[in-house]
Amino acid sequence: MTLTAAPWALDGARTPASVARLGARAAVKQSGIINPGDMKVLPLSTPGDGVRISSGGAVLENRYELDVNQAYVVEAISEEILDADANFSGITGQGTTKSHLICVTVGDPNYSMSGHPWLNTGNAPADATEALDYQYVRAWVIKNVPSTTVRVEDLTSPPTFPCYALARIDVPNGSGSITSGMIVDLREVVNARSKTYQNNVGVSTPDTLSVGTAFVYETWPDNSEFSVYVPKWATKVYCTGYINGFTQGSDLDVDSPMRIEMRTSGGVFVAACQQSVYHTEAAYLPKGTDKVVLLSGPISGPLANRGTTCKFSTAASLSSTAQNNRLGTTTRTSTGITLRFVEEAV
Asked: Nearest Cα to 213, choosing from 322, 95, 70?
């Protein structure tokens, strides 16, 4: 065993770059962006033959090595425009629909330059002075990839150099410019934070579902509501829930959309997950006390509500006010909501 002379970091010592890369790898175990809004691929301000990459940072695994145990930390200090210099030429105006990966890459002259798209023996830094200001980090386009590609690892021949796919652009036949609808965001936050809350309660007071206007939701059952602090870093919350053991008191039609809602501490509606629908028809004799609905879906957390306490609840409506009072809860009814706040790319 041979140990490097200096660790990362020690004043006055000369520490090899490989040790710094090892430290970056120890901190994160995959490639990705550092903060949710970093290095997002966007159309040009006026859509045209190119794209922009917003400022921010990312971590790239050292793909020069088969057994990855190092990583590079890269930064875009301002917006980057991709054009012909970044291999963007020939993207638009093609005769068939094509897909391409927008990537951030690293070129390290200390490794083999064979197969690297822009670093070679002809343009590598020639001496120590030139090496100080060389552009080792560049945006690059991998052209004509399968339309299902979401990572460089999906490619038949993945890159053998540090390379992270920020987005895929799916360019329709004959398109002369790149628009937001063509851009598929592939970024993931490294070491993304998450936090889970659960609330499960039994109904203490029976509650009959009755709405003043069709398709207008109300909190149902009433005591399903609870308050939760939304972390400042949370960009999305994945919701799952249920209403179990509610009743249908007659053999009549019922069409009731139900969902999980998010409101401010003052009760102002913010957002809701996708609805589920409890639907029965008279012909099937649906009367009973054993009804259950499962609810699920994501809610993207508005910036204004991050770092505040919000209320979450199950909610229901009816497709017609003629169906009022056909559904109800008893003291045997229970509700539950699980919230998983996550830090995802935005």
From this structure: 322
Q: Which residue has the tokens 């003629």?
A: 322
In terms of C-beta density within 10 A (0-12 exposed, 13-18 middle, 19 or more buried), how is residue 64 classed?
Answer: middle
Query: How many residues are present in the chain?
Result: 346
Distance CA 261, CA 218 (A): 10
Which DSSP letter does residue 132 get? Answer: H
Mean pLDDT, residues 66-75: 88
* Global confidence as pTM: 0.85
Q: Is 106 helix (H, G, I), strand (E, B) or coil?
A: strand
CA distance 326 to 294: 19
Cα angle for residues 273, 278, 282 (degrees, 5° grid): 165
**Residue carrying the six token digits 């709405």:** 211
Is residue 295 within 8 Å of residue 346, measured between CB atoms?
Answer: no
Cα–Cα distance measured from residue 193 to residue 233, given in angstroms and rounded to the nearest whole number: 8
Q: Checking DSSP bridges between strand 226-229 and strand 183-185, what pairing results, if any?
A: unpaired
Is residue 13 within 8 Å of residue 25, measured between CB atoms?
no
What is the reported pLDDT for 303?
86
93-118 pLDDT, tens digit each:
888 899 999 999 999 999 999 999 99
